Amino acid sequence: MQATADVTKKEISWSSWKGQAIDLLYWRNVKQSGAVFSSVLLLLFSLTQFSVVSVGAYLALAALSATISFRIYKSVLQAVQKTDEGHPFKAYLEMEIALSQEQISKYADKILLYSNTCMRELRRLFLVQDLVDSLKFAVLMWLLTYVGALFNGLTLLILAVVSMFTMPVVYEKHQAQIDQYVGLIRTQVNSVVGKIQAKIPGAKRKEE
User: Fold this and answer.
1) pLDDT in tens, the chain (208 residues)
2) C-alpha 180: how far from its chain's center?
3) Phi, psi (deg, nearest 5) at residue 38
4) How far is 59 from 38, CA to CA, in rounded Å?
5) Contact indicator for 132, 206 with CB cutoff of 8 Å
6) Nearest to 137, CA basis, from 123, 151, 153, 150
7) What keywords is this UniProt entry annotated with (predicted)?
């Protein structure tokens, strides 16, 4: 009974976290999404100009300046008003932030599962278990050589963040048109792949 209750709590917690992420990316709360989006972009743009160590140090100094100033302000205010409200960050200091053994095991199991899946997929592609999939992978790697020549990893990360906060909203507003174009592109790609499979010996997938 206890195990069932724990599983239910985990499912509710995951659903709540997922719902918050979706609301953030779809700009349900404009102020919250704007704050997160601008903060992440500011951090990434800072990394394009300064080293990771410098950015981390500046962020730590900014946070310490804010907390120390607030701590001194509250202490002076309590002294003037002769009140004893205690430490202004008491609630946060008493908050439990440690990961439980169960949570660590859960995340470790997920990482292990994804790692094993990735290794099996790479083995399948590099050892040409399916010729068409390996050719697709080769074309993708070839295209990435051009992408790498134009952009560095940090620039790609910035573009990914911008896409995460814009593409869902654009798709939501123009879903019908986008689905129509995606369907046409998919049809053309499947047609080309079918022709390649027909012409290359052994490229046709085996029927399961």
Assistant:
1) 544 545 455 555 556 677 788 888 888 888 988 999 999 999 899 888 888 899 999 999 999 999 999 999 988 888 888 887 778 888 888 888 877 888 888 889 999 999 999 999 999 999 988 888 888 899 899 998 988 888 888 888 999 999 999 998 888 888 888 888 888 888 888 887 777 767 766 555 554 4
2) 27
3) -65, -35
4) 15
5) no
6) 123
7) Endoplasmic reticulum, Membrane, Transmembrane, Transmembrane helix
| SS3 per-residue string spanning 80-118 | HHCCCCCCCCHHHHCCCCCCCHHHHHHHHHHHHHHHHHH
As to burial, measured by CB atoms within 10 angstroms (0-12 exposed, 13-18 middle, 19+ buried), residue 41 is middle
Q: Specify the pTM.
A: 0.62
User: Sign of dihedral through CA atoms 23, 30, 43, 95?
Assistant: negative
DSSP-derived letter for residue 64 is H
Q: Determine the 3-state secondary structure of 201 from DSSP.
A: coil
Q: What are 67's two structure tokens?
A: 């907390």
